[in-house]
Amino acid sequence: MNAVDATEHYETSAHDPAPSLLTVIIDTNPHAWALLEKNDKNQLPFSTALANILVFLNAHLACNYANEVAVVASHSHKAAWLYPSASTITTDPDGDVAMTADGNSNGGRQVNKYRLFRIVEEQVTSNLRRLMDSTSRADVNSSSSTMMAGALTLALSHINRRTIAWAEAHGGGDTSSLTRSSDPDTSTASMHARRSTTTTATNDSGAEGLQSRILIISVSSATGSAHQYIPIMNGIFACQRLHVPIDVCKLSGDAVFLQQASDATKGIYMSLSEPRGLLQYLMMAFLPDQRSRKHLILPTRVDVDFRAACFCHRRVVDVGFVCSICLSIFCEPPENGDCLTCGTHLDMGDYGAKPAVVARKKTKKKKPRPNGVSATPTPTPTPGP
Amino acid sequence: MADSDEEYIGGISEDEGDNNIARGLRGAAGSASKRRKQKGGAEFELSRTWETLVEGADGTISSTVEGLLEASKRKRLLRDTTPLQRGIIRHVVLILDLSQAMTEKDLRPTRYLLTLRYAQEFVREFFEQNPISQIGVLGLRDGLALRISDMSGNPTEHISAIQEMRSQDPKGLPSLQNGLEMARGALFHAPSHGTREILVIFGSLLSSDPGDIHQTITTLIDDKIRVGIVGLAAQVAICRELCTKTNGGDDTTYGVALNEQHFRELMMDVTTPPATYSQKQSTSSLLMMGFPSRTIELFPSLCACHSNPTSGGYLCSRCNSKVCGLPAECPSCGLTLILSTHLARSYHHLFPLMNWVEIPWQRASRSTACFACGISFPAVPPREQWHVTENLTKGMSVSSRYECTVCKNHFCIDCDLFAHEVVHNCPGCQSRIAIHSQDDVSKGQDGLEQMDTSG
């Protein structure tokens, strides 16, 4: 019908593809990068990797003029924003971004670069340098893990903020922002209402909504993140609720919880066999956004490690003991049968007990006795002291 | 928000009034709540929403409106964060009233259709919050108890069964006793480490029972079944008695819906796992469970549970038999197999995030932007103006900053809401926990405290 009266072109112009927000979490744990660099076969220095990631970010920004990126560093002792850093978000009382934020920094050198590319590159590198400078020897020595849970939470907070801002700025979102802020009901219902608005905001097939996704570039191994099991799982469930896929690009090792993260949120998990080809992997596998992914066969893995971390020793286990009250996981039955988390006395069943060992029957070599008493076995001699 | 018109503001404050009543109903003890309820109607009529609006210095009401909005966001956050012992493995029977009384149109579109819609949402939300629990659905129609769906842990089954009820019409009188007895039968096999609960959505003001319902109540108490009721019309004495007796003298599980919103809240409250009372309701036990990993095979093989050829599945972590779905019990060695993500989903009940505190202007100068999302806070005004904005609305922070008491970082209201309701992590604590965990690692064993603050 529309084609007949030529109103079709209005609709096509009204249905611009929704912009997408890509949040990249870079695992900047120095230990893991040093190991990766030492590897003779698959050398990938951090500087090269960062350059590749910046090209990938630019590619994402180039896909749509309204696309956004955010970069979080998950360092060995803290999680920090690389882009946008607090200084650029600072606005005037009028709500305008301060002009000095990008004007002062050596703009003259790179006048021919697209402004957004330049800002991202400058901020990421300078913030990363600051982060590395602030890392003392003690920090590196003390922990070899990475703050993945914190980085994930920061990324989610930013996504939440941008989703709200986008919905408020665009007409399509004003009803959702209204329901979000005006219903003064209690938690559950509001959470539900908000979830549904977020769902419509991010998941609607229409042009509405900012589409967000998270890409984790991980180098640390699994054992490091076992003590953050609960916060990471909380982050994963939040992503699941908000329909934010978590893509994982694993440069070395294998991470249990990140596999679960991408599986639960329908993201892509790739363990790179050739880390030197990072850029190609990024461009080929991780660039398409949610809408294009519907039409693609994703290179994700099907076998997923679903093991959990125990609460008592933070071991990663595949068979555990679970408290029926609080569902805490233990790798061995707790002492006295008291749950370490909730303190309930637990009915142990037979788990703690050692299996009854049947004493091995001493089979003596029986010599055929000449006197014929073999029918009645000789009593075993009393064991000596 | 500044361009909102008057009607919109009015809407907010009215809802707030509602909410106060609702809270009173649930929060206070029995007699107090009754009093509140009687008074509630009058209060509701007399609330003069326009009087709460005060013009700001610039002659607009935008500041007040924003204050109201923020206060309403904040209010629903301030809840109890005591980590209670909760029964997380639950067995719930949902009983829906399908009698004549449900045709009333006081809840839009009708009580019947609204109940069915909310029941479906309830089932979905319930399994979101209690993934390893079981639910069953019954109906009360024509004096009989009607089985809508059997006890099971699969939400889609229940939702489609409830969906089918839409084509039928409510008729006859309900029999509470029949419904309770059938629910009791359904819960008979529930293992002792789980909870046994009944939730009744009751639209009628009467119950036509074949026998003595008090006898049924006694047997329910003996079987340690807790009953919660959501009334749609008015309070019914037997319902209150039923709830009080089966919940150890606590009648907060009985609520009467004031409107659609309130009805929904009452139902959704039940999805939170109930606190375990100190008097032993159930014996707790240590369960051995396996967390199998998913595998994929090139050629299909038979699964041990259904003997169907599948080319992937989960291998039992003890005996390596292949099962095709989770949760399941290993058919060969009897180990309970479960996805660890199912367990992890309920951990935020165990380690709730502490409420964040409001920051007065005195301490506001420490931060200029939200730690998590980087939005800038309003600048600290000169000291003379501090008292002007103080005590504007209760529960909200004058400086728009909220502080986590553990990591001392400041956050905005949106991040506060997001952190407490969706992600259940504190961005600040998670981002710098290594300072703690350094000495944790050295001390080795005391990870539990750390988990308490972080989870």
Automatic annotation (TrEMBL), chain A:
Gene3D superfamilies: von Willebrand factor, type A domain
Keywords of this entry: DNA damage, DNA repair, Metal-binding, Nucleus, Transcription, Transcription regulation, Zinc, Zinc-finger
Protein's cellular compartments: Nucleus
UniProt key word tRNA processing: no
Source species, domain of life: Eukaryota
Positions of the UniProt region annotated as Disordered: 170-205, 357-385
Comp. bias (Polar residues): 175-205
Residue ranges with Basic residues bias: 359-369
Short name of any one Pfam family annotated for the protein: Tfb4
Family the UniProt entry places it in: Belongs to the TFB4 family.
Complexes and interactors: Component of the 7-subunit TFIIH core complex composed of XPB/SSL2, XPD/RAD3, SSL1, TFB1, TFB2, TFB4 and TFB5, which is active in NER. The core complex associates with the 3-subunit CTD-kinase module TFIIK composed of CCL1, KIN28 and TFB3 to form the 10-subunit holoenzyme (holo-TFIIH) active in transcription.
Protein task: Component of the general transcription and DNA repair factor IIH (TFIIH) core complex, which is involved in general and transcription-coupled nucleotide excision repair (NER) of damaged DNA and, when complexed to TFIIK, in RNA transcription by RNA polymerase II. In NER, TFIIH acts by opening DNA around the lesion to allow the excision of the damaged oligonucleotide and its replacement by a new DNA fragment. In transcription, TFIIH has an essential role in transcription initiation.
The protein's name: General transcription and DNA repair factor IIH subunit TFB4
Species: Aspergillus cavernicola
Automatic annotation (TrEMBL), chain B:
Superkingdom assignment: Eukaryota
Stretches the record annotates as Disordered: 1-40
Domain VWFA: 91-270
InterPro entries to which the protein is assigned, alphabetical: C1-like_sf (IPR046349), Ssl1-like (IPR007198), TFIIH_C1-like_dom (IPR004595), TFIIH_SSL1/p44 (IPR012170), VWF_A (IPR002035), vWFA_dom_sf (IPR036465), Znf_C2H2_type (IPR013087), Znf_RING/FYVE/PHD (IPR013083)
Record PROSITE patterns: VWFA, ZINC_FINGER_C2H2_1
SMART domains, per database record: C1_4 (SM01047), VWA (SM00327)
Pfam families (alphabetical): C1_4 (PF07975), Ssl1 (PF04056)
Subcellular location: Nucleus
Assigned keywords, A-Z: DNA damage, DNA repair, Metal-binding, Nucleus, Transcription, Transcription regulation, Zinc, Zinc-finger
Entry-linked SUPFAM superfamilies: Cysteine-rich domain, vWA-like
Transmembrane segments: none
Residue spans of biased composition, Acidic residues class: 1-18
Biased composition (Low complexity): 22-32
Annotated PANTHER family: GENERAL TRANSCRIPTION FACTOR IIH SUBUNIT 2, GENERAL TRANSCRIPTION FACTOR IIH SUBUNIT 2-RELATED
NCBIfam families in UniProt: ssl1
Function: Component of the general transcription and DNA repair factor IIH (TFIIH) core complex, which is involved in general and transcription-coupled nucleotide excision repair (NER) of damaged DNA and, when complexed to TFIIK, in RNA transcription by RNA polymerase II.
Family, similarity comment: Belongs to the GTF2H2 family.
Name recorded for this polypeptide: General transcription and DNA repair factor IIH
